[in-house]
Design goal:
By secondary structure, the chain is mainly alpha-helical. It contains 19 helices and 10 strands.
Amino acid sequence: MKKIIYLVISVCLFGFVACNEFLEEDPLSDITKDNFFKSRNDAFAAVNILYRKGVLNLMSAGNLVGSSYMYSTGFRSGLIDNPSGKGNIPAIGKCQTLSIDPVTDNSVIQGFWSGAYETIVRNANFALENLPACPGLTDAERKQLIGEASFFRALNYFYLVHTWGAVPVVLKTYYSLDDIYTQRSSEKLVYEQILKDLEVALNAGLPDKPMPANGFRITRGSVLALAADVCLNMAGYPVQDASKYADAARYAKELISNPNYALIQHGADMSNPENWGKSAYNTLRTSDNEKEYLFVREYDAVIANGGDKPVWCLPYEANSWGFKYSVYVNAWNPDPILHAAYDPDDDLRYQDNQYFHSSVIGPNGVEHTFNKLAYFWWEDEALRSTARSEKDITIYRLSEMYLIAAEALVKAGGVVTEEAAGYLATIEARASISKDYTTIKNKLQTLAPEAFVNEVITEKIRETLFEFKLMDDISRTRKYPALDGEGKFTFVPLMGAVNPYGAIFSEENVYFPIPDQVRQRNPLINEPPLQ
């Protein structure tokens, strides 16, 4: 049962905190500690709103852009296209050509920046400052809410450091104009603050179960998943703290070894194509209540529907095919380089009506064919009947933890162990039509460490291609997907890599530029980062 949506929507109806631009000269005034935090309900309201704001709000699905989250996680890589929508939105093409400008594109990137900081400063910080003294809470509830607020502050800082690198670390609510001037902190300091917040969340007594089993509130599993990802990124570029590989593996393995969490299994033998409708990937596409789900963004068809994400599964021509939405745009369209990562004959995810599809029978009974597009977000009822999406977006799944553990173990130890090979083989075997776990594992154990890690990163692309992980992995590994001389998938060094639009990566364009509006309002942001 979806509970958190109803609690959050009721908070929004009462207008908890005004949604003004971060760093505007307008300090928090709508609700203060003097007229709020008077009861248990106030405390829960202050935290509940975090489930729909900041980075989670950037994931909201529109029909032309796709979602704001796609700019920084896909378009910026040059490996994801929005062929139908970008003609109306120049910033998409400028992401692809690495030519985003802090002045002319200020309004676009400012929205991403201010959305995350508003959530941190006006919501998470406000809650963390006032929850300790709020009356009406039991000790367990107080600890839980502090843990949840800390988690969401960490999540938004993780997005900021991925997208801009060195950014200001703000740990208090702004109550006066004097508070808005803050110097940037180095990536290392930002990550250290993220880990401090996650440590609070890990010690908050959150239930140790999948998020759907907890009324769609975050759990210990949600926190462990984010912590594993944070540590993996901190071990990579630009911080390169290799000690964090061991921490990433430890967090991921805690989830893998816990029977409360489990990978989705196929419902029949996948060597027979007649059974593909019972695959784990069709369960992933249609079910919101699985033990594999560690952290999700929740939707409901009635009061908080999932927007237009089903339209991302069809080409623009589908506007005349009789489906219920008004506009169709394949907003997350992988470049042929990424298609080459899949074995077209053996990877179940690449077959029609799994992660991808290449034909559809329209409401009028006519079959339409097209080049492979996403099927990951296909919702039959929404497309054919209601035009109201209700499928949640999965942000962390257990399968990703297997891949984090596999990579981190090898990077930490310098050798391909049976354990690491087993974790990777588990995910590859689920996707294989003809190969079993043992065969795959034995082959993986013959790889040199670098080749093994490259295989893990490739499998990460195959497994999470539609979950917006692409640019984060490119940034942290400094490896860019490419095709070799025979047209096979490989990696090249990111610095100097040429993307499909002819743009060349350098250190200057690994991140978005800081919006001009932010630089003008906060002169300290132009100073070298604190170290």
